[in-house]
Amino acid sequence: MIETPYPLYTALSLAASGVPVLPLRRGKVPFGNCRTCAGNACGGRPNMKTAGPCRCPGVCHAWAAATTAPAVIASPAWAAAWRQAVCVGYHPGGAGLTVVDLDNAAAIAWAHGALPATRTVPTTRGEHWIYRGAMRSSNAVRPGVDIKSTMSYARYLGTGTGTMTALPDVVRALAVKKSAVVRPAQQVIAVPAGPGNGECRHRTPAYLERGIAMAEQRITETSSGVHNAVYRTFLAVLSAHGRCGCLTNAHITRLFTAAQAKGESARHCLEAWTNARTTLGV
Length: 282
Description:
Helix content is about 35%, strand content about 15%. It has 9 helices and 9 strands. A 5-stranded antiparallel sheet has the order 5-6-4-8-7. A 4-stranded antiparallel sheet has the order 2-1-3-9. Helix 6 runs antiparallel to helix 7 (about 225-240) and helix 7 (about 225-240) crosses helix 9 (about 265-280).
């Protein structure tokens, strides 16, 4: 693990530039709460969506302890933590920043092809790409990629190289929750009814469920060419079920959620769905 010499001095320097900081112990994790705050018995900070120290003087509540106040950072209550600290952590969102944490060579290669260039900082195994702008943090947005911004912390590993650029929409789109309900339309997708006044010959739990589950799996297991894989999968689903009226928003949401878990935005999902329908004429 990369250690920071004289972490207190580094922390004070960062705080002076407006970056909220906190000490990190071995394992690059925050220190545990004090006895008063153990198990969040104190009720936590009044507003855990903002950075800052707890009401007690200790280094409590992980990322929420991050502060720019030199009197707190260098206080006797924090002294023991700094003596044991191996590196400095900071709250990216509190500084108006977002860190895209790339954990391996494959993730770095993906970023070079998918993300706009920005300031880059080497890490133990990968790189931090730092953008100007805050957003919701989210782990494992794709293999080897975490997003650290609001309500999160990152290690300070130096100033890095390159010019910091504005947070792009492609990074914001990565943080779509896997459980989020995505509605490509406000109603069930309208498709022409098939024979039998719209009676679906596929409307059996086993057949329809198997088809949607296989489509989700196909998207989830895609390792490259996600855009094309999503479109081809949507095309296959619509070929089988697009004319019989059995597809509902619940089915489409499952497909969109699987695609977004692989990094597709809601807009790209809707475009792929619309293009597939146009191709098939449904």
